[in-house]
Amino acid sequence: MAIKVGIVGARGLSTVKGFQAMEDVEVTALCDLDEELVREQSRRLGIPRTFRVYEDMLETDIDAVVVATPMQLHVPQTIAALHAGKHVLSEVTAGVTMDELWWLIETVEATGKVYMMAENYCYIPENQLIRNMVELGLFGEVYFGEGEYLHDCKKLAYGYNRASNHPSASRPSWRKYWQYGKRGNFYPTHSLGPVMQWFKGDRIKAVSTMATGWHTAPEFRQEDTSITLVQLASGKLIKLRFDSISNRPHNLAYYTLQGTKGCYEAPRGLGDQHKIWLTSMDESTDSARWRPLSDFYDYLPDRYKNATEEQKAAGHWGGDFFIVQDFIEAVKGNKPPAIDVYDACEWTAVAFLSELSVMNGGRVMEMPDFRNSRSYRDQIIKL
Q1: How high is the mean pLDDT of the chain?
Q2: Average pLDDT value for residue range 282-297
């Protein structure tokens, strides 16, 4: 019997092709308040049932829900789905407040249903390749990484992605408040998630953020650029740069990694490419030179090397298929969620701690231990 999936959010459909490429899964329902849009998308994608009321969709025989709505709806809609007996794949970020993250964990633990966060940048092939090489020990002991997300999205603060002549084109969208109305790194998971997976078994201990102030678009509370230092429990370090304001070309996925036996850097544009250096390549660092990462694609996980054209067409170079595959395997009980509720909450909480840090002069903020919290006292954020 096929697993039936419903999606809430007719503008967030990056998972559809992935589900439709699986033989034992059906996307049977689509929900959105925009009735015209939900009908149009359902016809285009062959989804048989549409809903405007989310609770009505939850009362049907679907087995799982993809929450692809604005960020401030992720936790309320996830909790409703879990209590309705549905498994959940949630878009990023996991929530918009620290309290929401605790509510989310409590509900996942109480219901026993599968929750997974759909951080698709973890599934970019090169990020999976580096993860595999780290686990094989090719970088030695890794101790420093970087992630950057540089994406000028100012125009998305208005208009709900409507045409310029639509009556709502000049109205503030949800992003005006929950993204551009925030300080610090409000959207950390794209830059942080892949790097955290390279530090397998570690957890975030502390966060410190400083920012540039307001220069490009002072009408927003969000500053031009913020730099966040993330210290892990092991003492190792991750540096994040986040910028959704500055006037510049996009650079959506820049990463570096440093270990005792080598390093990796992602491209920065203008013909640059993924590159790697290992100590075994040259006699010393005096003669060291980068090699293209493409020379090491044999280290890709097998499913990436053997991906079909249909799987690649799902999006993000096949990543949008494999993230769906991992979710469905978790629903079937064959494996744990690849990005579980504890990872989702820890990565998301960097946003809230960075906001407190930047408003307090870069103060170091301690990260709660989401996986091992035993009382409300463990949930206190201390300044």
Answers
A1: 96
A2: 96
Render 251-318 in DSSP notation, one character per residue: EEEEEEEEETTEEEE---STT---EEEETTSSSSGGG---EEGGGGGGGS-HHHHT--HHHHTTSGGG
What pTM was computed for the model? 0.96
Is pLDDT above 90 for 162?
A: no
pLDDT of amino acid 319: 85
E strands of the chain, at which residues?
A: 3-8, 25-31, 49-51, 64-67, 87-90, 115-117, 142-150, 204-211, 226-232, 237-243, 251-259, 262-265, 275-278, 291-292, 365-366
Q: Is 250 exposed, middle or buried (0-12, 13-18, 19+ CB in 10 A)?
A: exposed
Q: Please say whether the beta carbons of 226 and 185 come within 8 A.
A: yes
pLDDT value, residue 1: 86
Extract the tokens encoding 169: 């084109």
pLDDT of 168: 64
Question: Looking at the domain that runs over 122-300+341-366, which CATH code has it been given?
Answer: 3.30.360.10
Q: Which residues pair with 150 in a beta bridge?
A: 243, 251
Question: CB of 2 within 8 A of CB of 25?
Answer: yes
Cα separation, 326 vs 332, in Å, equals 10
Residue identified by tokens 């794949």 is 89
Tell me the pLDDT tens digit for each residue of 229-257. Answer: 999 999 999 999 999 999 999 999 999 99
- In the numeric block, the tokens 């829900």 are attached to 65
Residue 166 has pLDDT above 90, yes or no: no
* Domain 3-120, CATH: 3.40.50.720
172: which strand partners?
Answer: 158
**Do 122-300+341-366 and 3-120 have the same topology in CATH?**
no
Report whether the peptide linkage leading into residue 93 is cis, meaning its omega lies within 30 degrees of zero.
Answer: yes
Domain borders along the chain are 3-120, 122-300+341-366
Task: Report d(CA 345, CA 234) in Å as an integer.
Answer: 19
Helix, strand, coil percent content, the chain, rounded in steps of 5:
35, 20, 40
pLDDT of 19 above 90? yes
**pLDDT tens per residue, range 304-320:** 999 999 998 988 778 89
| Whole-angstrom distance, CA of residue 22 vs CA of residue 18 | 7
